[in-house]
Design a protein that fits this description.
Blueprint: E1 5-10, H1 14-29, E2 33-34, E3 43-48, H2 53-72, E4 77-82, H3 83-88, E5 100-102, H4 110-120, E6 124-126, H5 137-150, E7 160-164, E8 166-167, H6 178-182, E9 186-187, H7 190-202, E10 207-211, E11 219-222, E12 225-228, H8 229-237, E13 244-248, H9 257-265, E14 272-274, H10 282-287, H11 294-307, E15 312-319, H12 326-339, E16 343-348, H13 356-360, H14 367-389, E17 396-404, E18 420-424, E19 430-434, E20 443-451, E21 455-460
Parallel strand pairs: 1-2, 1-3, 3-4, 4-5, 5-6, 7-10, 10-13, 14-15, 15-16, 19-21
Antiparallel strand pairs: 8-9, 11-12, 17-18, 17-20, 18-19, 20-21
Helix pairs in contact: 1-5, 8-9, 12-14
The structure holds S-adenosyl-L-homocysteine, iron/sulfur cluster (SF4) and FE3-S4 cluster.
Residues 51-52, 175-176, 178, 213-214, 249, 251, 276, 278, 316, 318, 347, 349-350, 352 line the site of S-adenosyl-L-homocysteine.
């Protein structure tokens, strides 16, 4: 019998992509074949995100397409997995295209759920009931085993891998759905993490990215010792074969200086910090329950720059939070001017059902104003990035090559017929240059000849 074909599509963050990769590997292991086209598939899995309304809307419109596909392929099985599956649960089965619903904590069960549906054609749901109070220890053991068994970089960028160090989130920013779909914060044991990193290094992985919603909250107590992110960075640095270590995302509250010192002292730890501020207005930060003021955030950024020279910092912002006045937005503009980020991500506030902000505050900033503020902040950051990036002109930087560049920028190919490649510096700058495709997954030195806000261009040196 021919192997059943599975297509998996990810709509979410790095965590979501890691989950997709684990599920893909588990299914391959069980004899399924992966396909990158839903039209050829026997099973389509959509790994969903709930963080903003538009992330969910994209899923709904994709489900519309799958409903249509089912007309020509009635045996097609469609699974909705991930955060939106956890949020909506059985409600999703009301959609005519959906056969399987599984939350982020149920990824290990997905292969069995597919088997079941293939044999009895019944629709099935598996999510966590009462996600904030369910005991997660046993669940974590299952997930740990699954994670360890099916990690691999095959579905990701060559020679790079993500390693989850914690699950869930306990910060409860008032606008955010993540604590309700990913559950309570649970750190994995340092042993499990380091064993996994060693295994990945044996497979040739050169860069690992430690993942958590708030990685700097990592804490694990064992034999009376408390392990923190700084300890993990040190332990991971000792793994032969691993050259670069990244970690995302950090939260500004309780960011321990030992992490900054680890970044300064350990050569393998990349000097890149993604640390969202969300707003520059103290009133809004308070309403968001972020736990710091704009001045405290900026003090931290200064401290980070002092301790880790040449650190690159990226931020996230939400514009149009309920009650955000022009003055509040101006405070955000001022913060962006002072922080001098490498880059930042700007999002328009999107009310999420069940969150505190949604329950208590009206989404009272009109779409036009949200759009304007979004554009203004991005334009400001573009100017800052353009200016900042000029310092690279004529410099030679080291990059880890990801592969051929999807967009063509300068020369599609050079005199030797080499394609355009994309790589990243340890500080997360994107560098585009021509070179042989065999460089994918390798380190390379590139001399920068041109700079723009989001990209550096150069030549192999
Ligand atoms: N755990 C990470 C990222 C969470 S989600 C962190 O705390 O940094 C990624 C980003 O989405 C957040 O940083 C925030 O800027 C944005 N976001 C979260 N909820 C949102 C909402 N309801 N509306 C708009 N943007 C939101
Ligand atoms: Fe959401 Fe805040 Fe947790 Fe980030 S820290 S995932 S924004 S609740
Ligand atoms: Fe990630 Fe979206 Fe879930 S940001 S954790 S996939 S809600």
């Amino acid at each position: 019998m021919n192997a059943k074909k599975v297509h998996i599509k990810s709509f979410g963050c790095q965590m979501n992509k890691l989950d997709s990769s684990l599920v893909s590997n588990a299914l391959k292991d069980k004899g399924y074949e992966l396909t990158d086209q839903s039209e050829n598939a026997d099973i389509v899995l959509i790994n969903t995100c709930s963080v903003r309304d538009n992330a969910e809307n994209r899923v709904v419109s994709h489900l519309g397409h799958l409903k249509y596909l089912k007309k020509t392929n009635p045996t097609l099985i469609v699974g909705v997995i991930g955060c939106m599956a956890q949020r909506l649960g059985v409600e999703l089965l009301a959609h005519p295209a959906v056969d399987i619903v599984a939350g982020p904590a149920q990824i290990a069960q997905i292969p069995d759920m597919i088997e079941q549906t293939l044999s009895d054609h019944k629709r099935t749901v598996s999510i966590t009931d009462k996600i904030r109070i369910t005991g997660t220890a046993d669940l974590s053991d299952d997930l740990n085993d699954f994670e360890f068994a099916y990690d691999s970089d095959e579905n990701h960028i060559h020679n790079q891998a993500f390693v989850r160090i914690m699950r869930g989130c306990d910060k409860f920013c008032t606008y955010c759905i993540v604590p309700f779909v990913r559950g309570p914060e649970v750190s994995r044991s340092p042993q499990a993490i380091i064993d996994q990193i060693k295994k990945l290094a044996d497979k040739g992985i050169k860069q690992i990215t430690l993942l958590g919603q708030t990685v700097n909250s990592y804490v694990f107590v064992e034999n009376e010792k408390t392990y923190t992110l700084a300890d993990l960075l040190e332990m991971a640095s000792e793994v032969d074969g691993i050259e670069w270590i990244r970690f995302i995302t950090s939260h500004p509250k309780h960011f321990d200086e030992s992490i900054l010192r680890a970044m300064a002292d350990l050569p393998k730890v990349c000097k890149y910090l993604h640390i969202p501020a969300q707003s520059g207005s103290d009133k809004i930060l308070k309403a968001m329950n972020r736990g710091y003021t704009a001045a405290e955030y900026l003090d931290f950024i200064e401290r980070a720059k002092q301790i880790v020279p040449d650190i690159a910092i990226a931020g996230d912002f939400i514009v149009g939070f309920p009650g955000e006045t022009d003055e509040d937005f101006q405070a955000t503009v001022e913060l962006v001017k002072k922080a001098k980020y490498k880059n930042c991500f700007v999002f328009k506030y999107s009310p999420r059902p069940g969150t505190d902000t949604d329950k208590k505050l009206e989404d009272n900033i009109g779409e036009e104003i949200k759009k304007q503020r979004n554009t203004e902040l991005l334009e400001l950051q573009t100017k800052i990035s353009e200016e900042n990036n000029k310092k690279f002109l004529g410099q030679t930087v080291e990059v880890l090559v990801e592969g051929p560049s999807k967009k063509s920028h300068l020369n599609k190919s050079d005199n030797d017929g080499n394609p355009q490649l994309i790589g990243r510096t340890a500080t997360d700058y994107i560098v585009v240059f021509n070179g042989p495709e065999s460089l994918a997954g390798q380190f390379a030195k590139v001399t920068i000849t041109k700079t723009a806000a989001l990209t550096l261009f150069g030549q192999l040196s």
